[in-house]
């Protein structure tokens, strides 16, 4: 099945891009360690990372598209002290795109041309078409040829019993994000999907994660795995009962996540009305990852703000 036929009580398509953008920014080292371990090992993480959203936005501003892509351009340093950029692209929405490989090539050469830095383009495919596995782009005219190869990971490969067991046993927090995305895409039955959602939440508690991390992961999983209203209510009641039964110090997880989600939605609507939809989408990851208290403060500032930048300072 595709995301469009997933069991849900809403008629609109699930938004998978936004949670992936947030997940990549929050857990980028973990993302590479889980899905691209060889590349992760080449990076000097003590030098930190830099998210280059503005630089990437300039590169793709000419693209004729009405949808968002879960892209992140990140500046890192190799162990030999060479500064490099990593473009992580996650293809998550709808049917596989026939121009995917060409788009990977285009973004790569445009970034290199504009900023003169080495760029590694990484692809994560979250669709459900097993045969869709682009990992190169080539074009030729007579004896002139361009060949572009890029690393690719197919999340569907992790749905096999052996690979799934690896994810469940992993101590990498990003494994939970991957598991949530896989189940959201391949599970037809809403009741089964609810059970998977609860299982992923229980895994977080069993691993003893701190409250802040649990709330962050809960928001991502809740975003990816959308249930019909009645089943969502049942899930939240079961989770609340589980938290109380084991006397977890996180008994407000569901309530706090709900407040945050509502505050973020309100601010996004305010943002779109005042500064336009494109501007709102640029700041979506920051808005949807903020704490409720911060969102409330931003909602007050937007009333008198002359530009988006003044809201966040």
UniProtKB/TrEMBL annotation:
Which domain of life, per UniProt? Bacteria
**All residue ranges annotated as the DUF4351 domain in the record:** 257-306
Pfam families hit by this protein: DUF4351
The record, for InterPro entries, names:
DUF4351
Q: What is this protein called?
A: DUF4351 domain-containing protein
Species this protein is from = Thiorhodovibrio winogradskyi
């Amino acid at each position: 099945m595709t995301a469009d036929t997933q069991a849900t009580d809403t008629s609109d398509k699930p938004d998978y891009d936004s949670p992936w953008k947030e997940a990549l920014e929050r857990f980028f080292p973990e993302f590479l360690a889980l899905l691209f371990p060889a590349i992760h090992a080449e990076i000097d993480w003590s030098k930190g990372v830099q998210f280059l959203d503005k630089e990437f936005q300039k590169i793709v501003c000419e693209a004729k598209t009405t949808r968002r892509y879960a892209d992140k351009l990140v500046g890192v340093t190799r162990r030999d002290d060479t500064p490099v950029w990593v473009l992580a692209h996650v293809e998550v929405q709808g049917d596989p795109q026939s121009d995917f490989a060409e788009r990977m090539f285009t973004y790569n050469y445009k970034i290199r041309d504009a900023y003169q830095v080495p760029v590694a383009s990484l692809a994560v495919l979250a669709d459900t078409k097993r045969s869709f596995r682009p990992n190169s782009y080539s074009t030729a005219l007579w004896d002139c040829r361009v060949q572009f190869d890029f690393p690719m990971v197919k999340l569907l490969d992790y749905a096999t019993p052996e690979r799934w067991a690896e994810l469940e046993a992993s101590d990498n927090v990003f494994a939970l994000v991957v598991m949530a995305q896989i189940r959201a895409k391949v599970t037809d039955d809403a009741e089964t999907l609810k059970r998977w959602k609860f299982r992923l939440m229980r895994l977080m508690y069993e691993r003893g994660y701190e409250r802040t991390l649990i709330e962050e992961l809960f928001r991502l999983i809740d975003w990816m795995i959308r249930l019909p209203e009645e089943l969502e209510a049942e899930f939240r009641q079961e989770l609340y009962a589980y938290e109380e039964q084991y006397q977890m110090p996180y008994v407000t997880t569901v309530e706090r996540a709900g407040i945050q989600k509502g505050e973020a939605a309100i601010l996004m609507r305010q943002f779109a009305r005042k500064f336009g939809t494109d501007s709102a989408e640029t700041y979506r990851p920051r808005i949807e990852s903020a704490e409720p208290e911060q969102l409330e403060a931003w909602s007050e500032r937007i009333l008198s703000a002359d530009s988006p930048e003044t809201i966040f300072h």
